[in-house]
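User: What would this chain look like folded?
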Amino acid sequence: MAHVFVLGIAVLDHVFYLPEMPRRAAKFRADGYDLVVGGCAATAAATIVRLGGRARLAARLGDDPNSDAIAGALTAAGVDVSLARRTPGARAPVSNVLVDADGERQIVNFRGAHLDTGLDWLGPDAIAGCAAVLVDTRWPEAAARALGLAREAGVPGIVDAEPPFEGAGEMLAAASHLAFPADGVRLLAGTDDLAAGLTTLRERHDAWLAVTDGADGVRFTDGDAIAHEPALRVDVRDSLGAGDVWHGALALALAEKREARAAVRFANAVAALKCANGTGWEAIPDRAATERLVAG
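Assistant: Here's the prediction, encoded as structure tokens.
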């Protein structure tokens, strides 16, 4: 059972389901509502456990009821939260999420207040026994240190490289694997051509690079070439968290020492099934369902 150290954000999501996205300032009636725990790192950690791996999560929380709800949900999902940084008087991140009838989403995020900024706790013992390290961009100073520990330990150090990138230079430079959303490549490379953007970014970063592009699949560096792995076609019920699920699955696949294309194909299958299954961590598929879809 591969063990992954995950560092980044955990959020309480208020999810409202609407026939279509609001286009003006007015009252709108939702068709449904869910309260779920999300966030790049938290959802990735839950995905790793759901797929049969082990996840140790370092996330910043407070002592408010939202933080209690987040920590409780992570523990119930089987995630090790012993390294969660719970600061007295701090407030947890929360999001308001709108999902339309096509499964597309709009998110307004509050990233918390008075959260821990110290790094004295983050040393080699934090990642001991882990076969990969996965970080997001929400705590770049801690992420850079965790990725440095991954390099010292000789294990993959993966970044869920979602904008914004302020203060993320050291973190991006320390990674062995950088996986961007499409808008991240467009922002950093200055082009809408994602393959050309990866080629540009490869000249700046000594890392394996990938870019996810929803229904258009994933492009990634393969030696001197840019390879492509298509998305798996499903009827989308809810795309919320699909990228976070994808990164968790990729990190676990790399921890299990799968080669790059096989790891991307595995992650694509997990994300596709999540979108087809619906909302929240209950929609994350297990290993058996994922392997059946990969096998075709």
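Residues 260-277 form the longest helix (18 residues). If you want, I can go into more detail on any region.
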